[in-house]
Amino acid sequence: MDTTTEVAFGGSQWQTFAPFGIALAIGCLIGLERERSAAHENSGLPGGIRTFPLVALLGCTAAWLGEQFHLALFIALTAGFAALVVMAYFLTGSRGDIGMTTEVAALLTYVFGAMTYRGHWLLAAGLAVATTVLLSLRRILHEWVRKISEQDLYAALKLAVITVIVLPLLPDVDYGPELLRLFNPFRTWLLVVLVSAVGFLGYVGMRVVGPQWGLPLSGLLGGLVSSTAVTLALAGRAREEPRLVRACVLGIGLAWAAMGIRIALAVAFVHWPLLRWLGPPIGLASLTVSLGAWALSGQSRREALDFETKNPFSLWSAMRLAGLFLVILIAVRLAQLYLHESGLIVAALLAGTADMDAITLSLARLASRQDIVSLWAMVGICLAALSNTLVKTVVAYTFGGRPLGHATALLAVFTIVGGGVGLMFTVAALRWGG
Questions:
Q1: What's the pTM?
Q2: Do residues 229 and 335 share a domain?
Q3: How many domains does the chain have?
C-alpha cells in the first residue's frame, strides 16, 4: 500500500479498512446518480445505489488480493468484470439501446476502487466527483450541444488549428531594424490566439445560455466578443422597439464593463506587472458603468432580450488582427521615438477609435520590452479606451435614437469618471510610494 494512505489514516487497522470505506463512498456517490437517472437512461447493466458500491468494493478487493497473493488474481478479476460489462452492453445493444454511459461508469468505478487501495484515494475521490457531475449534467449538455451550429464547430476547429498546429511552427525570434525589432511571429500569433479565444468563448457562452438567462449575463458575454458590436445591435433594437430602451442601456453598459475584463486579460497575458498600474482605472471604470447601467435600467433588467452577434472568429479576422497589431505597434513606437510622449498619446487616441485589442496588446508589448515605461503604457491604454467609449456613444446616438443616445452618454460619463478616479489613484499611489 502507498505511504500516502499510511500518512492520511495512520495505524494498521485504518491502513487496512480505510481504503475499502472510501471505495464504498465513491460507489455510493456514482450509484446514487445512476439510480436517479434510471428513468431517463435504459441500460441493461443493473446499476444503482447498491450495484455501484459493490463494483467499487470489488475493485478495491481485487487490488488487495493482487498485492497480498498474486498479481494474476487482480488481472483475472479485472478481465472478468470487463467481460461482464461488455456482455451487458451487447445484450442491451441487441434490444436497440446503443448507449454505454452506465457501462463506462461501472468500469470507472471499478478503477476508482482499485486506486483507493493503492493509496491514490484523493485522486480517486476527485475523479469520482467529476464523473458524477458529468453524468448528472446529461440533459443540460445535450441542450447546449443542440445550440451550437455547424459553423460554430468549424470556427472552433480553425481556432484549434491556429493554436495547436500553426503556433508551434512559428519562430520565437525578433525581426526588424535595431530600434524597431518588434516583429516576433510566435508572440504576435500567440496574442492573436489569446484575443480570438476570449471572443470565441464569449460568443459560445451567449449561444449556450441564450436570452432566458437574462440580459445582464448576455451583455457581459457579448462584451467579451465585441462591445462595439453589442452597442450597434442593441441600438438597432432600441430604435425598432422604444419600450426596450432601458433594457438596451443595461446590455450596453455591461458590455462596456466586459471590455475592461478583456483589456485586463490581454495585459495580464502580455505583461503582468502592467496590470498593477492599469487595474484601478480599468476596474473602477467597469464598476461605475455597471452600476450606472443597472440604476438606469430600472425594472427592465428582467427583460429576456435577445440580440444577434456573429461568430467573431475566422482566419481572416485573425490575420487582420495580427496585421493591425503590427501596424499599431510600429506606429506607436515611431511616435514615441520621434514625438515622445505626445506622439504616443495621439497614436493611442487614434488607434482606440478603431480597435482596442490591437492598441492594448501593442502598448503592453512595448512595456514588456521596456521600450516605454509602464506609466505611459497605462495612460495610452486609458486614452484608447476613452476614444473607444466616445465612438460607441456616437454609434448609440446615430443608430439608437435620442433616448438611447442620452442614456449612453450618461454611461460614458460614468465610465470616464470611474476611470479618471482610478487613474488619479494610481498616480497618487506612485507618487506616495516614490
A1: 0.63
A2: yes
A3: 2
